[in-house]
Specification:
Number of helices: 16
Radius of gyration: 26 Å
Largest sheet: 6 strands, mixed
Strand content: 25-35%
Low-confidence stretches: 1-38, 160-175, 716-721
Structural class: alpha/beta
Number of domains: 3
Strand order of the largest sheet: 22-21-23-26-27-29
CATH architecture of the largest domain: 3-Layer(aba) Sandwich
Amino acid sequence: MKKNTTLILSNWKQVCVIVFACLMICSVSVQSQQSLVDKDVHETYFFTAPTLETIDIAGILYDRVTLGDCYSAGSAGEPKIPSKGVFLLLPPDSVVSDIEIITGEKVFLGSGYTIEPTSQAIPLSQTKDIPVPTPNEVLYNTNAAYPGELFTQVGIQSFRGYQMVVLIQYNPVTGALFYYKSLEVSVQTINSATQPSLYRGLQVDRTAIEQKVDNPEMTFWYTEQFPSIPASFDSYELLIITTDALKAGFEPLKEAHDATGVPTVIKTLTDIGGSDLESIRNYIRDAYTNWGVEYVLIGGDNNVVAAPMLWVSGMDENVTYYEDTMPSDIYYACLDGPYNYDNDGNWGEPHDGTDGGDVDLVAEVYVGRACVGSTTEVTNFVTKTVAYINRDVNDPYLKKFNFAAEYLGDYGIASYGSTYMEQLINGSSDDGYTTVGISTDDYVISKLYDTPTYSWPSSAIISVINNGVHVINHLGHASYEYDLKIDTYDVDGLTNPSNRTCFIYSQGCMAGGFDSGDCIAEHFTVKTTHAAFAVIMNARYGFFWSYSTDGDSQRLHRQFWDAVFGEMMSEIGKASHDSKEDNLPIIGRSCIRWVYYETNLFGDPSVKITEISNNPPAKPSLPSGPTSGKVGVDYTFSTSSTDPDSDAQLYYQWSWGDEESAWLGPYTSGQSVQTIHKWLAAGDYQVKVKVKDNYGAISAWSDPITVQIVEGPQIEIGNIS
């Protein structure tokens, strides 16, 4: 082996900034418009020292840089540098005018490093002529800064009336490896008189925003200035859209949901007044606004209730793709702005959103599809879904999780899918980010893994399903009519009863291409009363990375289970879309946009896959302590929080404006918590605190207090006699 030492790279946190801004007409009930407009938003982020390790890629040694909860956002051949997502809420009635990144203390880590290159995205169907990750010769042989700018803007996104600006900040090359202990994001705003049509001012929306942003205290101004939309007489959580001919078949599903606390309404294309894409989307938008709808089930195959064909590119160099459009129900989930601004034949382009910006990629509602085309298929789907809704929560089969992985090709660490699947078990901090996984303490895990000496047969997965398994996670080769080493004929022959059907998440290629005849995802979910009650599958190629586990499809797969077990999102539709939004900061990386579009849920999005009911602790009380002081003096601050789960133990993390504390605890619910801090430099510091329970659920940040620290004389008091 040899170590490539062509270039010495410097490394600091690559920061992806997502800024939430609510754009509405400003009232005069609180602070004046000018005072809000002139107020900048500042947030500081702190980082511990990165870890460095030497890795071998096809006989060449490189240096890998890992920074806690940061991940790569580069393109193939570029230095693989960590990045971090940052989420800021702007003042009401404002838009971003400028963003500045202010660096903290720079710490040198040494010289002589060669950072590993970013891998190429590889279709899971490609088994030959696999490219080895290779440094971009231009970048790796230049002394200029890389890429020579602090950040580039990715696009603008919206969530329920709150607009977001997405940016990426890159690492400069200076000839030595270093990082910054902190980065301050400073956002300047100007007034806007635009009122978003999707703003409802509901508490559920405020709670959702507070869980997403790093400065939730800003939501106070929205509540003060803008009233909630009055509740309508009708209120529903789930909207089912189908045809007149199929409507009756969905009635048992509506009844099951109504009986279990999910108010449901069924509407047909006749009710909507059209079957075109925009009419359906506008109807969903109206139902979201006026009925409070949170979930939408599309009750029809692509030729019954059409799905938009979205255009996407993203294949890295030297990799040929066969499709440039794909069916995607994300169009019905993300309700802000157009998806074909330029009115050409390609929907979903990065410039097809409002005023030529990016399309909306943050969901207002969570969408799934029952790809039914006949009353028989409706009956099959509804029978399984109702049986699952009414399941016995103590049934042992619900504890059974299977992991199926195949040989992918000669890709180094990525040669076997089992390496990827292991990241889903008990969680993982691989590849620079942490996700919660499926606990071996709580579930019975079985595995079907190809190895150098063994290839599991198709009969093995058939036996697993027929004998009753709750969940299957899969990584392997697939096609429109083939997945999990079985074809549609095998799926139709499965015999597990309707109250023992499973949920499948597969990264395989094309298995969810429901625009191409009846794909295998449809056979799993609507062709019989056996097999699966829901699946998540890809409409086109699934993607992984050669010589790396940081694959694009794997990112969604890991974040899905993190949403379920880490963020406590039991509903499969909500967890599926959260898995995408967690990767929004790197939407321009590799094939992230590709998998963002193609990964569809075939099933009822409101169905809960777990009975976990852990709720996060309440937002901590406003920190109590001095609001002024002197450099070098210890000051005491206190707060408290409560947890809705009586057995929870609480841990607190403080942000002092110059650093963040470790998680301190445990404490009991309602217990007053005190801690001490001193500042080593003069300045104004924002002090806030958040709390998590022993199950991992985290509260929003508290409202902050500002502490003004000034230089003071150092006075020593001697003995007085």
